[in-house]
Amino acid sequence: MVRPALRSRSLRRVYRRTPGGRETILYERRRPGPARCARCGKPLAGVPRLRPSRMRRLSKTAKRPERPYGGVLCPRCLAEALRESIIRGSL
Predict the structure, then answer these.
(1) What are phi and psi of 17, to 5 degrees?
(2) pLDDT tens digit string along 32-86?
(3) Which residues pair with 11 in a beta bridge?
(4) Quick count: other Cβ atoms within 10 Å of Cβ 68?
(5) pLDDT tens digits for 5-20?
(6) Domain boundaries, the chain
(7) SS3 7
(8) Beta-carbon neighbour count of residue 39 at 10 Å?
(9) How far apart are CA 5 and CA 86, in angstroms?
(10) Backbone φ/ψ region at 89: left (φ over 0), alpha (ψ -120 to 50), beta
(11) N or C: which end of the chain has fewer CB within 10 A?
(12) What is the dihedral of CA 28, 34, 38, 44, to 10 degrees?
């Protein structure tokens, strides 16, 4: 039986073949859910679903879209927010 710490369902089991030909089980954390829009909750395109340790290795441009509020708002909500701010005259 495996170590008690590895019996958790929060870890996923990955079957890997070793160079010696044996198949072993590696335990790794599951991928996080998709990043979501702060206004409508729709999953954001262009934001990778990676654990923080892997996310740190990416360049800044690979972590989120290059537009205002990229990685926070979806394009539709951003357009609505910009329209609202122009109408109110806060821009």
Answers:
(1) -95, 130
(2) 999 999 999 999 999 999 999 999 999 999 999 999 999 999 999 999 999 988 8
(3) 29
(4) 10
(5) 999 999 999 999 999 9
(6) 1-30, 33-91
(7) helix
(8) 15
(9) 54
(10) left
(11) N
(12) 140
Q: How many Å apart are CA 70 and CA 37, to the nearest integer?
A: 10
Q: Which residue has the tokens 């989120």?
A: 64
In DSSP terms, 15 is beta-bridged to: 25
Mapping DSSP to helix (H, G, I), strand (E, B) and coil, where does residue 17 land? strand
The first and second tokens of residue 42, run together, are 């729709």
pLDDT score for 91: 56
Taking CB atoms within 8 Å and a gap of at least 24, the contacts of 23-31 are: 27/2
Listed in sequence order, the DSSP H helices in the chain are 52-55, 60-63, 75-88
Percentages of the chain per state (helix, strand, coil), in multiples of 5: 30, 20, 55
Once rounded to an integer, what is the mean pLDDT over residues 19-39?
Answer: 96
Contacts of 26 (CB under 8 A, 6+ apart): 13, 14, 15, 16
